[in-house]
Amino acid sequence: MPYLDSFNRPISYLRVSVTDRCNLRCVYCMPPEGVPWRPHGEVLRYEEIETVVRAAAELGISKIRLTGGEPLVRRGLVDLVSTISCIPGLDDLAMTTNGTLLARYAKELKAAGLKRVNVSLDTLRPERFRRITRLGELSATLEGIAAAKEADLVPVKINTVVIRCLNDDEVVDFARLTRAPDWHVRFIEVMPLGDNADWAGNGYVPMAEVRERIERELGELRPARLGGGGGPARYYRLSGAHGTVGFITPISEHFCYQCNRLRLTADGKLRPCLLSDYEIDLRTPLRQGAAMEEIKHLIVEAVRAKPERHHLSEQVIPQGRVMSEIGG
Ligand code: SAM
Ligand code: SF4
Predict the structure, then answer these.
(1) What is the per-residue pLDDT across 91-137, written as a single tens digit (0 to 9) for each?
(2) Which residues constitute the domain of residue 114?
(3) Which residues pair with 16 in a beta bridge?
(4) Which residues line ligand 2 (CB under 6 A)?
(5) 223-227: long-range contacts at Cβ-Cβ below 8 A with a sequence spacing of 24 or more?
(6) Do 241 and 179 form a contact (C-beta atoms < 8 A)?
(7) SS3 at position 197
(8) 228-250 residue pLDDT tens
(9) Which terminal Cβ of the chain has fewer Cβ within 10 Å, N or C?
(10) Which residue has the least CA distance to atom 12 on ligand 1?
(11) How is the beta sheet containing 92-97 ordered, strand by strand?
């Protein structure tokens, strides 16, 4: 049974950032100069991640998502997937990725026990993709998405952060994709974190506006269900479409009351809330040889420390890390 936090929310989901490094520099996620990578010694080793996941599973966590930075830039990730997929008590193992390296790894990841992937994709236009990611090629991510579907890492969910004057004119194009088989698109409101206030302030687009634009062009969106979730997205379907359109509204309609997650940063801090800088250090006790019971005790402490909700509306903006250091 999942552990309950102080507000009676069952905590069943751990997001594990396996690296703070990334092969892209998305404008709303990282500053132009990038962020200084943490030295390898500061990043949790795979055995340490395994210990934390085992402890979490013993406390009723049943879902793990690997994220980053870009998880697929860390060497040996397939081995970590193999190890984690054998831990008793877990029933879901997923990954969030920018997709650039998926074409290379999708089959191996599936064979190692990964169930599915979410792929971030903010534009369908090659030049714009380069502008948003500063380094990437659209074709690589599209090939990655195709490879993930081919490898049965499904449902593949596309995560699209919508930003005014950057890609908001493409929401209808993305929604249209869901008429083809296997396309599930989730639109996300951009969140302020660290130094990205320009993107998150001036660029913020409420999901109600995105929905209205889609319905104006493509017709009514009817409520739908999509498996492999239990997360904050609300799903809809266009008439006759196979795929779904999801909306994630951390700002306009926060979903903190149903939050079921903890986050582990690449440098071994347990973060009870994405949007609060409070963290509990696991790396030091892990390296001092802490017993499993002690790690479990610290995880319970993080569960108890989960705040009731975020306070972005009162201008409390987390400053400690940028999104690539937490994993989204
Ligand atoms: N590199 C991987 C990727 O891009 O999918 C995993 C890490 S990335 C930080 C996880 C997710 O966070 C991505 O879908 C990304 O678009 C999203 N993200 C990054 N910064 C964000 C922000 N300020 N507001 C909302 N979502 C953000
Ligand atoms: Fe890298 Fe993902 Fe952040 Fe883009 S959103 S810079 S791919 S971590």
Answers:
(1) 999 999 999 999 999 999 999 999 999 999 999 999 999 999 999 99
(2) 3-326
(3) 66, 264
(4) 22, 24-26, 29-30, 68-70, 98, 120, 323-324
(5) 226/155, 226/157, 226/184, 227/155
(6) yes
(7) helix
(8) 656 899 999 999 999 999 999 99
(9) N
(10) 328
(11) 221-223, 234-238, 245-248, 184-189, 157-162, 116-120, 92-97, 63-67, 13-17, 261-264, 269-271, 280-281
CA nearest ligand 1 atom 19, residue: 29
- At 51, the amino acid letter reads T
Assigned token pair, 132: 């948003």
CATH number (domain holding residue 316) = 3.20.20.70
- Average pLDDT on 187-191 reads 96
Closest CA to 66 of 37, 39, 105, 35: 105
User: What total of structural domains would you count in the chain?
Assistant: 1
**Which residues have any ligand 1 atom within 6 Å of their CB?**
22, 28-29, 67-68, 70, 96-98, 120, 159, 161, 188, 190-191, 193, 196, 200, 323-324, 327-328
Place of tokens 């660029």: 203
Name residue, tokens 């929310």: 9
